[in-house]
Amino acid sequence: MAAGRARRLLGSLWIALLLGQPDPAGAAARSGSQSFLTGSLVRTFTPFHFLVEPTDVLSVRGASVIMNCSAYCETSPKIEWKKDGTFLNLVSDDRRQLLPDGSLLINSVVHSKHNKPDEGYYQCVATVESLGTIVSRTAKLTVAGLPRFASQPESSSVYKGNSAILNCEVNVDLAPFVRWEQDRQPVFLDDRVFKLPSGALIISNATDTDGGLYRCIIESGGTPKYSDEAELKILPDPEVPQKLRFAKQPSSLTKVTGQSAVFPCVAVGFPTPYIRWTRNEEELITEGSERFVLLPGGSLEIGDIAAEDAGTYTCLAENGNDTIEAQAELSIQVPPEFLKQPANIYAHESMDIVFECEVTGKPTPTVKWVKNGDMVIPSDYFKIVKEHNLQVLGLVKSDEGFYQCIAENDVGNAQAGAQLIILDLAPAPTGPLPSAPRDVVATLVSTRFIRLTWRTPVSDPQGDNLTYSIFYTKEGINRERVENTSHPGETQVTIQNLMPETVYVFRVVAQNKHGPGESSAPLKVATQPEVQLPGPAPNIRAYAGSPTSVTVSWETPLSGNGEIQNYKLYYMEKGQDTEQDVDVAGLSYTINGLKKYTEYSFRVVAYNKHGPGVSTQDVVVRTLSDVPSAPPQNLTLEVRNSKSIMLHWQPPPAGTHSGHITGYKIRYRKVSRKSDVTESIGGTQLFQLIEGLERGTEYSFRVAALTVNGTGPATDWVSAETFESDLDETRVPEVPSSLHVRPLVTSIVVSWTPPENQNIVVRGYAIGYGIGSPHAQTIKVDYKQRYYTIENLDPSSHYVITLKAFNNVGEGIPLYESAVTRPHSVPDPSPMMPPVGVQASILSHDTIRITWADNSLPKNQKITDARYYTVRWKTNIPANTKYKTANATTLSYLVTGLKPNTLYEFSVMVTKGRRSSTWSMTAHGTTFELVPTSPPKDVTVVSKEGKPRTIIVNWQPPSEANGKITGYIIYYSTDVNAEIHDWVIEPVVGNRLTHQIQELTLDTPYYFKIQARNSKGMGPMSEAVQFRTPKAESSDKMPNDQASGSAGKGGRPLDMGPDYKPPLGGSNSPHGSPTSPLDSNMLLVIIVSVGVITIVIVVIVAVFCTRRTTSHQKKKRAACKSVNGSHKYKGNSKDVKPPDLWIHHERLELKPIDKSPDPNPIMTDTPIPRNSQDITPVDNSMDSNIHQRRNSYRGHESEDSMSTLAGRRGMRPKMMMPFDSQPPQPVISAHPIHSLDNPHHHFHSGSLASPTRSYLHHQVSPWPIGTSISHSDRANSTESVRNTPSTDTMPASSAQPCAEHQDPEGSAGSYLAAAPEEDAAQTLPTAHVRPSHPLKSFAVPAVPPAGPAYDPALPSTPLLTHQAPNHPVHSVKTASIGTLGRSRPPMPVVVPSAPDVQETTRMLEDSENVNYEPDELTKEMAHLEGLMKDLNAITTA
How do residues 469-482 score in pLDDT, each as one tens digit? Predict the structure, then answer.
């Protein structure tokens, strides 16, 4: 750049000197007629140009042709002609001569098959001596060939009013010489009958006169050429419509701007068709257009074609019955045109100049330069720069003349020229000139530049005002170049752009205000040789061979500078920063593993022994497309109505498209018929409405993306079910279920929820608002919208807002709300808007996809900032469930790990920086059902009273039902190890929790398993439960428990424990059977003694109680009796019995008696839970079965009775025996057995601890303090208190004076233990009951009478003690009664029900115990006498 400025400055100074003015005007003066006004040394530019240039000519053989040419110059120019680049010798040519104006006349054009001397390209050359030469554009002379028909007319027929076409195809150069004849008479062309450029004849709106014989004639000089004759018949109108068809369709054309074009379009049919045209699918208006003309018959003519006329033209023919169309392309070519022409230039020798030339055209023109008529060949001093400009370096005098830029393409050529004048130096004015600079040396020599320094001339040692010009040339070349210093006084310069290893000659000239001085002596300097590195590899090409590979090829570098060792191929994905490379030995390489349909750039570097050479330019190629490699994303289904479903999805992930997505293929099918698949191919939109579906039918859908290569992978099947019936739109929607407003400064955010009745169509919502009235303005929004922001409101203003849902019937009832906008002084915190359109799409039993939209994002919903979304969800069961949250950076989130068949609610908020939105409207979704994952629980088996061959199976639902239970399957077998398919199956439909199985074999062990099912399938089976049916059907036996050797679930072997001691009699019988007559006699004596003592105690108590009876206590007792009746005898009044008389018998004990040989199916030896957490609740559905038994351990007791345990603190335990009005039965005394570690029942014979000691085993749950303590209680008060547990777990509000009346029909002795025994070897007895029931009073039940008088209302039921926390749990102990010959089954412990809390509080007024009336005691005594008679019968037997 510095050198260029120096050159321009030097030239400016010289011109200034020549003009006598100091203004520097530039290195070269450019002007059309500019002149320098000083002296004879300055010349003006001479006008010299063509007035007329030759044009292309079409001629025929034997005709005369004139090629026009005329040039202007002040001096008359000499005109010559070139044909095909060679000058014509016109002096001795008798056929071709030069006309006075310079035109060329060719007489009698010669043209034959083998001799074509006149056809070719002609160019006019004008020369002015001592000025220069210019050449014209080239013009083509075309001679029409011999007459020849490509196709001839054929006979045809046409309906009247239709158009007919007669073909006559000839060469393009002969088409202008074609004419037509009808019946040997010339056809006159007009608007109705016209000839196409190809020569064919079109007759529109045919009439009868158009019929006849037609032929076409070629008259191109010489004898005319005739075609065959063809007959055209005109047919009358047909009576029926004729199919519409094209007789002539348009064909694609290529035309040059300024020409005209005709698109033929002839359609025939009946009714007569009408033709119209479109261009690029837009209607083409021909009426009133000057350039677009609709010719008769429907053909289109375009005149004076312009570049913008290019495109697709479509001819549409329609006749009311049918429509057909045909297309053709119009391509436009443009001859070269100059955007910038070369300008005239003044210059001096040794200067560098540039002629500028800028052209355009289609196809892109090529440019060549001509100097004085001769081609300029590029060299070191003549260079083509910036595509088309000509640069001349180091001007010499011979460079003067006319330079022309000639542009040429397929459809024409053009030329433009300029003159270069080399100015001579003017004589030096008076004044001293500087001498030669001294000591010119090359201080730095490189391969391509040299730095020169020198000292100032002797004539001017200071040299501050001197400038210097450095002239240099290659050794042996007389064309010098010049480089000027940048500033006055500068004594060094760097000459660049030199050639390596080349000798240059330098000289330096100093200049002052008077002119240039002497030149320094020439200095020869050789540049350094360049390192022998390879040049760039030429002709690098890259092409995609497949979607993942590209092949790159190149040639050996021209400047190899030694043997090429290898090449390195560099490639990089477009848009990436990291470049990869691979070593290649040959001249091509295929790179595999590239991304599909991705642009890559490639370059090659050659290596020799010196290292890497010059890199090639980058070539860019895109790999081929392929089918997408991933399915579309986020497929969601929206059921619109009973017959249509809307699908929405997102494109496959970026990088997996493998091409341009051209559409999406949707496949769908009924879930019930998976083989019948329907396909639908849509466009590139990301949604599709599938219509025509069946009502109430579940369909599965999947979507795949398409490219031109085919179909990519499809999404998973997603299912949705159409509505059974469409929503109702015969009435207006109901009122929206809620409306919320949030005022801001100038806006109010309104949010709402839809009407509760979802069966009525809602088309949208109308929001009205205004100051004081909601009718000022109304806004309607879509039915999917759930919030809206009312903008442009006034601050601190009271607005009334109304919301109405509407459909096509009308608007529904409005909902009103008011809000006051905030004042301006309050800064708007500008919270973010919450996400909208939150939707929950259920994907499986534990997965739900949450999608939403963000109105603060642009329309394309593309996230470009650092915002994130928080999704929260929870279920409402149980009610105190906490929310779970997760963050997402996209507009969807997959919530996993959910519970099956559970309703969840979801909401979303958005956070950006420190700003967060409120939670969005909630979306709800219920996960799909799953097969039960746990078995039914608490399976129990009991015998039906009175029917030993029938058993009742009870159970509770699975804890993990995972859906609505639709039934159960009961499996039972006598072989627990049998294959499951060999077990007997009993199905239970619905959600029943009990089932009877009849006709079982007596005295047989059965095993039972239960399996639950829902709509998804079967769950796991429960553990096997063993049950042994009774041995005989005798009804006089008490129902027995399960076999003592079988524990409730699985029959574990007996574990006697370390504290077990054999019975005193020495027997180890598991049933406690007596082994000697002595034991039996002792037992009888004990029983009789117990009976006598009991009678005495009863009499004493009765007398004592009678004295304390008051009227007030009668009322209280009546209240208690009514309470018990409502619970225990509800629905079965005939079984009501008088209340029991409770008798203290802590001191009584009953020796173990022989166990009856027939087992009782009602008692289940279920282990007692070890702690309160093991206790599981029992479903109320058990009640239906338990009502059949009058001593149900639940009865009809309210669950509130749980709380009645609270008042039973610090009470003395006592055992009481009820006396019933039943027939006389033996009296039973309960006696606890030493505890065993095994938590199951054990029965053994022999005498046990003393009565006093055995009392310690009767310590039970604390009783109310207010209950009176009998004398016998006081006798052992010290021991009792010591064994009373201390517990704070029972509320104090339930002390019940009437608790003793709870079970007047109790049928089993019950022993409950709630405190650990002080003696580690002894454990308190417990009874097994359902865990949801409180502790109840203890009762020793009456034994049912023998024979048919057995009362089924008195079965025994296992119950569970309520144990205090941190107290051990003890085994169930049973009391046995029996006769001499056989033993009765052990009696289970019974806990009577406690009254409800409300009734209990009413009865707390009674401060003392409850006593009976004398008549009631009389009945009880009669009952006791019956018991004694039973005992006597036993002893006498």
Answer: 899 988 888 788 88
Strands 1017-1021 and 1005-1014, how do they pair? antiparallel
Mean pLDDT of the chain: 74
The H or E element spanning position 1427 is helix 1414-1436
Q: Which residue pairs from 422-425 have beta carbons closer than 8 angstroms and sit at least 24 positions apart in sequence?
A: 422/347, 422/348, 422/349, 422/395, 422/396, 422/397, 423/14, 423/15, 423/18, 423/36, 423/41, 423/42, 423/43, 423/346, 423/347, 423/348, 424/41, 425/14, 425/41, 425/348
In 10 A of CB 35, how many CB atoms?
Answer: 12
**What tens digit of pLDDT does each residue of 1115-1144 get?**
444 444 443 444 433 344 344 444 443 444
β-sheet bridge partners, residue 569: 582, 604
What span, in angstroms and rounded, lies between the C-alpha atoms of 121 and 973? Answer: 113
Cβ(1010)–Cβ(970) below 8 Å: yes
Tell me which residue of 850, 835, 838, 925 sits closest to 895, measured CA to CA: 850
Q: Give the residue from 943, 941, 974, 937 showing the smallest Cα distance to 959.
A: 937
Cα Dmax for the chain: 178
Q: What is the pLDDT of residue 1414?
A: 61
Closest by alpha carbon to 1066, among 1205, 1247, 1299, 835?
Answer: 1247
pLDDT at residue 1107, as a whole number:
65
pLDDT at 1413: 59
Read off the tokens for 863.
């996230």
- Of 275-284, 1010-1019, 1087-1096, 1312-1321, which range is least confident? 1312-1321
Closest CA to 728 of 766, 763, 690, 691: 763
Q: Which of 1254, 1211, 1206, 1261 is nearest to 1230 (CA)?
A: 1254
- Whether 673 shows a pLDDT value over 50: the answer reads yes
Residue showing tokens 């608490």: 938
Measure the CA–CA gap between 149 and 394, rounded to whole angstroms: 61
Q: Which amino acid is at 556?
A: T
Calpha distance 518→131 (Å, rounded): 33
The closest alpha carbon to 565, from 621, 511, 606, belongs to 606
1285 with 1361: CB under 8 angstroms?
A: no
